[in-house]
Design brief:
There is one protein chain. The protein is an alpha/beta fold. The chain has two domains: 133 residues, 2-Layer Sandwich (Nucleotidyltransferase, domain 5), CATH 3.30.420; 90 residues, Nucleotidyltransferase, domain 5, CATH 3.30.420. Helices cover 32% and strands 29% of the residues. Helix 1 crosses helix 2. The longest helix is centred in the first third of the chain and has 18 residues. The protein starts with a strand and ends in a 27-residue tail after the last helix.
């Protein structure tokens, strides 16, 4: 398959292309320029692959959670491309994208703790149980204060053997007592690690139309309102 993956939920802006058996990717750490650089990055990897946009079979979108602006950049870009090219979209969360990278790098992990710094003294958190090459989400993806998030992690992990971590929120969890011996395998979500999952979703038909490819914020919507709009 020929799939384009987009990930902009954190400081890292990344795109990746699966051109049958070949993968090409680009990433850039930047806090404010995601909207400016994402389409040029897409054009760059398509040019390197000598592939026209019209040859794409689909788009793999990291829907978040993460930066409010960041997740909207990837979502709106994916929607625009998919509408123009009449393509479907496979949705992967940023927390799972991190876990997929950790899974690819770690040796025989039992659990993967994925966390992104959500600011405002909170972290996005997800715990996955590893079964062969599959990730089973335990509970649900949440946004919690670091101390509460640590308690949540420990409630999900039945033993502390072969635990690996990933994401920018891990240091905040370590400050609350998360075992620093749990090896961290990834810092930011990277689009290239979404491609295999995206292909699986396309083959199973678990894809959506462009208008359904909405950002995943996890936070309650009231968080984003101005103070005078909150009730």
């Amino acid at each position: 398959m020929k799939l384009l993956a987009l990930e902009t939920s954190t400081e890292n802006c990344s795109v990746a292309l699966k051109n049958d058996d070949k993968v090409i990717y680009r990433s850039s750490l930047t806090t404010i320029k995601h909207a400016e650089i994402i389409l040029p990055m897409v054009d760059e990897i398509l040019k390197e692959a000598c592939l026209d946009k019209k040859a794409l079979d689909g788009i793999v979108l990291s829907v978040g959670p993460g930066s409010f602006t960041g997740v909207r950049v990837a979502s709106s870009t994916a929607q625009g491309l998919a509408l123009a090219l009449n393509l479907k979209i496979a949705k992967v969360t940023s927390l799972k994208t991190l876990a997929l990278e950790a899974l690819s790098k770690a040796f025989n992990p039992s659990y993967i703790v994925s966390s992104i710094d959500a600011r405002m003294n909170e972290v996005y958190i997800a715990v996955y149980k590893v079964d062969a090459d599959n990730l089973e989400l335990l509970g649900e993806e949440k946004v919690l204060p670091p101390k509460v998030a640590l308690d949540y992690v420990l409630s999900q992990i039945k033993d502390c053997q072969n635990v690996v971590t990933c994401g920018s929120g891990i240091e905040l969890l370590q400050q609350e007592g998360l075992n620093p011996a749990f090896e961290k395998q990834a810092a930011f979500p990277q689009a290239q690690f979404m491609l295999t999952e995206g292909e699986r979703l396309f083959k199973s038909g678990d894809v959506v139309n462009p208008e359904e490819a909405l950002p995943l914020y996890v936070r309650n919507e009231v968080t984003w309102k101005k103070v005078n709009e909150q009730h």
